[in-house]
Amino acid sequence: MTASLVQSANGVTLLGGGDFARADLDLALSLAPLLVAADGGADRALAAGHVPAAVIGDFDSITPAAQAAIPAERQHRVAEQDSTDFGKCLRLVSAPFLIGLGFAGLRMDHALSVMTALATHPHQRCVILGAEDVIFLSPPRLSLPLTPGVRLSLFPMGPAAGRSTGLRWPIDGLDFAPAGRIGTSNEATGPVTLQLDGPMLVLLPRDCLALALGALAGQGGALAPPPARAG
Length: 231
Prior knowledge:
By secondary structure, the chain is of the alpha/beta class. It contains 6 helices and 15 strands.
């Protein structure tokens, strides 16, 4: 197993090179205070006034100016081309959970590669924060304390099946596949439970970010920001 380049006892914010709102970065850092940039995300971090704790990638998009501004010991060049920069981060960062920002709203091929990386790193509790949605790979069992009417979409990343409670359209007895049945635009009737066999992405409204992180962490509720530092 590959050794981690970054280890954190708290959540980690992964910053990509795509667009994001400054308020979203503040939100992510309030929940996941260690900032790690995926290659060109380093330039985005510096432009937002943050020096990342680490930069991971093949360094084909980070600028020389960003490299000069970030201490050399924080820069981790991974030359192999068999994975994306986001995939490298998922492989080489160890933390209780991750928030990915700057990875939604990318070029379609980049967005698809992000979804694939989520499915191929099921050990990571990573939630992608977008302008409209949060997206994550569901564990085999998941409980979400949703209220009636909340949109919940399921998208299979391979053959999948499962059972549910609390969905307007239950999934029991259905076979899912990327080129077959998918589960987008479902709706909660109350708290939702999922039991899944196979890789399944969950999409929720973006205001469910803390709730999703709490559910992935097994807390069954919203995740509170870490306590403020004294002084």
